[in-house]
Structure formats: structure tokens, C-alpha cells
Write a structure and sequence with these properties.
Belongs to the CCR4/nocturin family. The chain is α+β, with helices and mostly antiparallel strands and 769 residues long. Helices cover 24% and strands 20% of the residues. The chain is elongated, with a radius of gyration of 34 Å.
């Protein structure tokens, strides 16, 4: 795409507030500074480019209180924003009169076109109404073409404006010098921070703020802005990002200006060391390529590589999902890689001055930068699938013991109601459709051929209309399903979209003895110690998560196994609620197990278990808790203290008076080899949230489903995508059941007739008694 640099211009472009290049272009008169009447130059830190205003001019303009030029304010990261200065009424009338005179002089057949528009600009709470007049001479543009451009003036003018700003910053370290000049003129409230000696994080003069606690900075669809309190999730995918806060807090600068230096190559140190950068200027150098390692600058929001000799863009640039501005002006780029479609937060894509393909150019002029990114994302090729996940063998057994094995498959399949483009902006819409995802889900489940399947976020209507019957007919699974508690208060249509937990089991191997539904909010009301705690009503009662408990009996060995399938609340700011829910889960598992220590009436010769700890138990689900959480500590160690950090200052009866305890010797199935790198993988969070827990005294782990290929992940922004239907990945473990053996009577040793004591013969004749 190529425009005439200064011969074409169209008004009605949107304000560029907050952009670090903005002060070099915008003014209250709306005319580019390089086209305004020159003013007396003061001292400049560096020789400016011919077409760009000098720093001295900017300083003089800032000192001219009534000149109409903007004033500036420095930020700690060396970025700067514009504070508009409103024109008075006289200035506005004079400006409007000048615009009218220019419009009257223009004719339809002339080559000079004047466009006058009024814009409403808002920046940091300040509002200024400015009138912008742009006069351009069209050398090679016909009247029809100009009319077409005028129809799309917003996007065209945005490209032209950004390109002009970029060209005015070709001098060495232009942005750094400009920021330094403004820093010298910026008022400073105080150079000394007065703090409370008893609380150093508290300031008196407002210049210091306490360090935020990021200990619970976890997200998932599951952990981050995935659910709403009532409807399940939010669509805000931008609130809980995964920047490295510890690194960013240590840095006093996040902007690096290497523009105008004639660079031909970039050092790998830049990409490997300065990963905290949010703004990087590499404009007007002699770069012929960008290294693929640039994808390590994961915090970049602005990248300017204009005015170089680039002919292509590395696909790895699509991994920089924090990018808001990608400026590629005045290069030799003809095409864009489809991987840039992952830049779902990109607001400005600068392509003017490049021989870009017509299809991309037309989309950009018609619908703007976001439309180009959308087109790249929707039309991206599927690509090669990752290698099959390997099985990790822990212990091998002979085929004669197969009847004692139990394989458990656990998967949060992502309810279709939550699979929106707002929540997963990096995923093509066709990959979010239920028809596409359902086939991938079914294929994944059928390929694993597990004995027991625990699914979370199963929609009510999908279970009834498809999964229940299809699994029974095709694979021989019986099942139980319960939706979340909110379904009870909904109409049929709304109820169908409510998700819940479904447990499938192979009917040829297991007999269903009993099933029990645990509704955490309802169970909390039944506890006497909870009824006096306001936090129960304010925090626990508003969450309608559930668990499904099933008692299964092996048809061949008559051994029973308790299977719990649960989905714990997602919000990281409710770590206390997670602990309470899991505490109630373990209490209910103990009560449920007590009911089934003796064999059911249907199999009177079944096994008798002396205690609940002797009953084989499997607990699977999405716990929305990391391995360093209180939930993980409680399940693995059997107890957490009453003052555990996850409880905070909230009160929950006996839980916060005596602490939490349970009787089962539980262990995560992956603990022997270390937890997987992640079970939840999205753009701004990767971590372990899903587990299959087992009672270690009754079950042994035989094998585990391994992680996803690292090479594949290095090219992926997040799930779901074309190969993975959910933002979670399934986990699976195979166990060997330790069947309790009946006690054998000890036989007396045989030492021969000479030494063996003769037993006393009991007299059974009661006639003489």
C-alpha cells in the first residue's frame, strides 16, 4: 500500500491521545507543526530532521501560554501524553472563518481539496474542541478515487497521520530527546517522599503507593475473568494479564529509543535481556529483517520499525499479544504472515509506504487495522497438529491383572456459552463454533478409551441431546449429570445453557450403586457453625458450584470405588471460598463413603471395608487452584491451619476456628513425576488447575498422559485453537486397584507326633450337665 506522503490528506481522523508520537503532530490548530509558521528556535539537544519540529520549538511553544500549543506531562516509563489547551471563542471563530474561505476557493475540478472537520478530543480527563483543516494537492488521484478515500476518511487519515508523525521522528534518538526535553519542563511536586516510619509503604504526600500483593494473580477461563457471578463468566479478557510484575516494578523505565542510528542488525541481548520493555523504537535504521527472538519481548505494546528495509515480518511477531501499535511505514513489505491474526488487541497497524497486497490494502482503508487482523485470523491455515501426547509408564503389570486396573479421564471441555470471541480474541470464530469443537472433544475422548470419564462445563442441553445417548450407543458408557444450582430457577431454554459436571463409566465394567449431588451453597446452609458467619452469605452462597459423587462397583472383582467429580469456583480473589468448598467436599465424601463400607444388597458377597480410608477413592475435576495454593496443600497434606493465608480475614465457623482436616491419604496422580507444565493454557495465563487425586493406600499409579509438545507450544498463543477444543487440556491416569485380602486363620505348626501337643477334646455331651 502506498500513499502520496504530503500530497494527499483527508480530515475527520480520530484523536491520537496517549500516543507517544502525538505531540509532534497534534496542536490546537490541527495543522501539522512542520506546516505551521516557523518560530524562533531555541537550543536543541540534537540536530533535528529537516521536516520535523525541533525540541527548541516545542519548548518555546510550551512556554507560550496563549499560543494554542499543547502542554505535556511525563510518566515514569518515559512515555508522554498530551494535555489539550482549549481555544477561546475568538480563536475558534477565526479558525472557522479561515476554513470557510479555503472551502469557497476550492472547485470540484481543481486539484486542491480542503476538508474541515471538528473533533472532540479527550485526554486524561481534559477535553478540547479543535478544528482541523487539512489542505492537500492530489497529483495522481482522480475525483472518483478521492471521493472513495473521503468516504473512508477515518481509516485513511489515520494511516496518513501516523505515517507523517513517524517520518518526522527520523533523527537519532528523536523520541528520547523529546521526552527528555519535556521532562525538564514538567513540574515536579516534590523530590522527597515523606513516609510514615511505622508503615513505609504509606505516604503522606501521595508520591508513593504500597506495593500490591500479587500472590493470587492467577487466571483461567477458568481462573481469570471467565465467569460472572450469575451467568458464569465475563467476556473481559484484558483485566488479568500475565505480565511479570516483579520485573516491571524493579524497572524505572520501559521505553527504549534506538531510532535513526543506521542499525543493520539487532543484538540478541536486546530480546533476551530487555524483556520488560513496553515501547521499542527501531524506526529509520537499515534493518533488513527482524530476528525471530523478538517474540521474547512479551510486554511490548508499541513497536515502531518504520523507515527500514524490511521485506517481510517474522511470524513470531504474532506472539506479542500485548501489542497495541505496530508501525511498519516506509518499508518494502508486500504481505503479512497469518500469525499476526493473534494480535487481537492491536489498534493501529501502520502500512503506508509499503507495496502491500491490494486485498490487505483495501481492508485497511475500508475497515481499519482491526479488520486486517481479523481477516488474517479467520483465513489462517490450520497448520500441522502437534505430535501425539506420550504415555508415561510408572509401573508395568501383566495382562492377567487387567481386571484390577482403572483408567480415569478428566477434562474441562469449555461450555459453549463461554466460548466467545471476546473471551478468546486470538481464536478464529470457526474454531470456537460448537460443531467444530464437539468433534474434537469426541475424538479426544474416544481415543483415550478410559473406564471413567469426568467432564466439567458440560452444557445441560448438550448432555441430553447428544453426549448421553451417543456415549451409550457408540462406546457403552452409562452416565450421571447435574447442572449448577442456578438451573433450578430458570426456564427450559435458559436451563439448557447451564453447565455442570458429567461422569461417564463403562457399563460393561462397573455397576452404579448410588449417586449424590453436592451443592456447595446449599450445603453451607445446613451447617450450624456456618449460619452465624456473614461471610458465608456474602461470599459462599453466591457461588453455585457443584460436585457429583458416584459409588461404582466392579462387576468382576466386586470392589467398590468412590468417584467425585467437581468444578471449584474460578475467581483468584476468592481463595477462601475455594478452601471452604473443598473442605465441604471432603466432609461429604467421608459421609458418602461411610454409607458404603458394607456391600450392597445386590451383591451380598462383595468386599467389606473397615474404614472410609480403606475404600478406593478418586477425586477429579477443575479445582482452579495452583500447586502452591491452600486447596492443594489441604488435599495433599490432609490439613490446613485455621489462619492459612487463603482464608484471609474471613470467618467460616469451625474451618477458621480449628482448621481444616480430612482422613484420606490423597495424592495427585502426577505428583510422582511432577505436575504438568499446565492444564490451562490461554493468552495471559498458563498453569495447572486440574487434578486427579487418589487414595494412596488403595490405588497405585501405573501410567499417566504426558504433556503437549514444547515445540508446538512455542508457536501458539493460547487455547482453544484449531487442534485443541478447550482452554484446558485433558489429563488421564491409569491405576491398579489394591483389593483387600480376606484374613487367613493361622495354622498351628506341625512338629511331628512326639512333640505336638494333643488338643483338648471338647465335650459336647450336655446330658450330664
Amino acid at each position: 500500500m502506498s500513499f502520496e506522503r504530503e500530497n494527499e490528506a483527508v480530515g475527520s481522523y480520530s484523536a491520537l491521545h496517549g500516543h507517544s508520537l502525538q505531540p509532534m503532530y497534534n496542536s490546537s490548530s490541527g495543522t501539522p507543526l512542520n506546516l505551521q509558521r516557523p518560530t524562533t528556535r531555541n537550543g536543541s539537544p540534537a540536530p533535528p530532521s529537516v521536516s520535523s519540529p525541533t525540541v527548541g520549538q516545542q519548548q518555546q511553544q510550551q512556554q507560550q501560554g496563549n499560543s494554542g500549543y499543547p502542554s505535556f506531562a511525563m510518566y515514569p516509563n518515559n512515555s508522554f501524553a498530551r494535555f489539550p489547551v482549549s481555544m477561546n471563542v475568538g480563536q475558534q471563530q477565526q479558525q472557522q472563518k479561515l476554513s470557510q474561505q479555503q472551502q469557497q476557493q476550492a472547485t470540484p475540478n481543481s486539484t486542491t481539496t480542503s476538508i474541515s472537520t471538528t473533533q472532540q478530543n479527550t485526554s486524561l480527563g481534559s477535553t478540547a474542541a479543535t478544528t482541523t483543516t487539512v489542505t492537500a494537492t492530489t497529483a495522481a488521484t482522480t475525483t472518483t478515487e478521492m471521493a472513495q478515500l473521503a468516504g473512508n476518511s477515518t481509516h485513511v487519515a489515520r494511516q496518513l497521520t501516523y505515517a507523517q508523525i513517524s517520518r518526522q521522528s527520523a533523527s537519532p534518538h528523536h523520541h528520547a530527546r523529546t521526552a527528555a526535553a519535556m521532562a525538564r519542563n514538567a513540574p515536579v511536586a516534590s523530590t522527597v517522599t515523606i513516609t510514615d516510619p511505622n508503615n513505609p509503604s504509606k505516604s503522606f504526600n501521595g508520591l508513593m503507593s504500597g506495593v500490591s500483593n500479587n500472590s493470587n494473580m492467577m487466571s483461567n477461563k477458568s481462573m481469570h475473568s471467565k465467569e460472572e457471578e450469575i451467568n458464569g463468566r465475563t467476556n473481559n479478557n484484558n483485566n488479568n494479564k500475565l505480565p511479570n510484575h516483579s520485573i516491571q516494578q524493579q524497572q524505572t523505565w520501559t521505553t527504549l529509543d534506538m531510532g535513526g542510528m543506521g542499525l543493520k542488525n539487532l543484538s540478541l541481548t536486546l530480546c533476551n535481556t530487555y524483556t520488560f520493555l513496553t515501547t521499542l523504537y527501531l524506526n529509520y535504521n537499515n534493518l533488513t529483517y527482524l530476528p525471530s527472538s523478538i517474540n521474547k519481548l512479551v510486554h511490548l505494546k508499541t513497536l515502531d520499525v518504520s523507515g527500514n528495509k524490511l521485506t517481510s515480518i517474522p511470524p513470531e511477531l504474532g506472539l506479542l499479544i500485548q501489542l497495541r501499535e505496530l508501525l511498519l511505514f516506509d518499508n518494502n513489505i508486500t504481505d503479512l504472515p497469518s500469525e499476526l491474526g493473534s494480535l487481537y488487541q492491536l489498534e493501529t497497524l501502520g502500512l503506508e509506504g509499503n507495496p502491500i497486497q491490494p486485498d490487505i490494502k483495501n481492508i485497511l482503508l475500508k475497515d481499519g487495522s482491526p479488520a486486517v487482523i481479523l481477516s488474517l485470523r479467520e483465513n489462517a491455515p490450520v497448520g500441522m497438529p502437534p505430535p501425539q501426547r506420550e504415555w508415561i509408564t510408572i509401573e508395568s503389570i501383566g495382562t492377567e491383572d487387567d481386571h484390577d486396573t482403572i483408567s480415569v479421564f478428566c477434562f474441562n471441555i469449555l461450555c459453549q456459552k463461554y466460548a466467545t470471541s471476546q473471551a478468546y480474541g486470538y481464536t478464529p470464530s470457526w474454531a470456537l463454533s460448537w460443531d467444530y469443537r464437539r468433534e474434537l472433544i469426541l475424538s479426544e475422548i474416544q481415543s483415550r478409551n478410559a473406564d471413567i470419564i469426568c467432564l466439567q462445563e458440560m452444557a445441560y442441553n448438550q448432555y441430553e441431546e447428544y453426549f448421553r445417548d451417543d456415549f451409550r450407543e457408540r462406546a457403552g458408557y452409562d452416565s450421571v449429570f447435574y447442572p449448577k444450582s442456578r438451573a433450578k430457577t430458570m426456564q427450559d431454554k435458559e436451563r439448557g445453557e447451564v453447565d455442570g459436571c458429567a461422569t461417564f463409566f463403562r457399563s460393561s465394567k462397573f455397576e452404579l450403586i448410588e449417586v449424590s449431588l453436592l451443592e456447595y451453597n446449599q450445603k453451607a446452609l445446613q451447617r450450624a457453625d456456618f449460619k452465624k458467619c456473614p461471610d458465608i452469605y456474602n461470599r459462599v452462597m453466591t457461588k453455585d458450584n457443584i460436585a457429583v459423587l458416584t459409588m461404582l462397583e466392579n462387576k468382576e472383582t466386586l470392589a467398590r470405588v468412590l468417584v467425585a467429580n467437581s468444578h471449584i469456583h474460578w475467581d483468584p480473589s476468592f481463595a477462601d471460598v475455594k478452601l471452604v468448598q473443598v473442605g465441604m467436599l471432603m466432609d461429604e465424601i467421608d459421609k458418602f463413603a461411610n454409607k458404603h463400607l458394607n456391600p450392597p444388597t445386590s451383591s451380598p458377597h462383595g468386599i467389606v471395608y473397615s474404614t472410609t480410608s480403606k475404600l478406593p477413592t478418586i477425586i477429579a475435576g477443575d479445582f482452579n487452584s495452583a500447586p502452591d495454593s491452600g486447596v492443594y496443600e489441604f488435599l495433599s497434606k490432609g490439613a490446613v491451619k485455621k489462619d492459612h493465608i487463603d482464608f484471609g480475614d474471613y470467618l467460616y465457623g469451625d474451618y477458621t476456628t480449628d482448621g481444616l482436616t480430612h482422613k484420606l491419604p490423597l495424592k495427585s496422580s502426577y505428583a510422582q513425576i511432577g505436575e504438568l507444565p499446565f492444564t490451562n493454557y490461554i493468552a495471559d495465563f498458563q498453569g495447572v488447575l486440574d487434578y486427579v487425586w487418589y487414595s494412596t493406600n488403595t490405588l497405585d499409579v501405573l501410567s499417566l498422559l504426558g504433556p503437549i509438545d514444547k515445540e508446538y507450544l512455542s508457536k501458539v498463543v493460547g487455547f482453544p485453537n484449531a487442534h485443541f477444543p478447550s482452554d484446558h487440556i485433558p489429563i488421564m491416569a491409569e491405576f491398579k486397584l489394591r483389593n483387600p485380602r480376606p484374613e487367613k486363620k493361622l495354622e498351628e505348626p506341625n512338629f511331628g507326633n512326639a512333640s505336638r501337643r494333643q488338643p483338648v477334646k471338647e465335650n459336647n455331651d450336655h446330658s450330664n450337665r
